[in-house]
Amino acid sequence: MTDKVSSDLTRVYVWQLPVRVTHWLIALSIIVLSVTGLYIGRPFMTVPGPAGRWFVMGTIKVIHFYAAIVFICAVVARIIWMFTGNKYARWDKFVAVHRPRQMGFVPTLLFYLFLRERPPAYVGHNPVAGSAYLLVFGLYLLAIGTGLVMHAPGAEVGSPLRWFASLAPLFGGFQTARWIHHVVMWLLLGFMVHHIYSAVLVSALEKNGTIDSIVAGYKWVPKHDLGPGPYRWLHHGEIDE
Q: Which of 98-112, 134-148, 174-188 is least confident?
């Protein structure tokens, strides 16, 4: 969907509501999971008396559990949307199966390495960002898998969650799964910092509303990026003309 708003820019509807909602749910749940997970691993608050200590830990674990449910549901919904959403949300924006996106990888990487003044023109995810997000979704699934394995032994008798204990050998046992879960947390937090930096950088250079788009869904795209031009070969059907 496009809406012409000036002689130079065209407003393009890029991020549909499910993409925006799952984006913020994943981000917020990661923050809650990280804070509560750090406390569970090393309690930094104490309350006098055994009952008080158990109450704090129990509350933190409940918050962690429900944040994990939000996280899992948001990740699963976003993966489903990779096959049902618009062209900017599709799986082929994460896996560079089309040659034009493959050819655009190096020029985009050079921009991120400050060896190119401007990035190639993309409306949705560029090839480098798409590949990075693919790895991030792999981390999401790893966090979910190890988290379910760690939770399984403490689940109620008869709970289907106890089945995930049988997957512990896939991660090298419960202690290794716990270590992997911890490392993945720090990797995701590091990605969040880089994600914010790169979004601000691209938004400032391209002036296309990158940051605003994850709230409103729209980007402002120069018309010469939508039609024939020096970067037109990169789009490969991403843009409605």
A: 98-112
- Tens of pLDDT, residue by residue over 76-118, are 999 999 999 899 999 999 998 888 888 888 988 888 888 887 7
Phi, psi (degrees; rounded to nearest 5) at 122? -135, 145
Rounded Cα–Cα distance for residues 79 and 227 (Å): 31
What stretches of the chain adopt beta strand conformation (E)?
Answer: 2-4, 9-13, 218-222
Query: In this structure, what are the phi and psi dihedrals at residue 219, rounded to the nearest 5 degrees?
Result: -120, 155
State the residue for tokens 């939508």.
Answer: 226
- DSSP for 97-108, please give it: -SHHHHHTHHHH
Contact 21, 80 (CB under 8 A): no
> Which residues pair with residue 9 across a beta bridge?
222
* CA 77 vs CA 69, 71, 80, 115, 224: distances in Å: 12, 10, 5, 37, 34
Contacts (Cβ under 8 Å, ≥6 apart) of 159: none
Structure tokens at 6: 């000036």
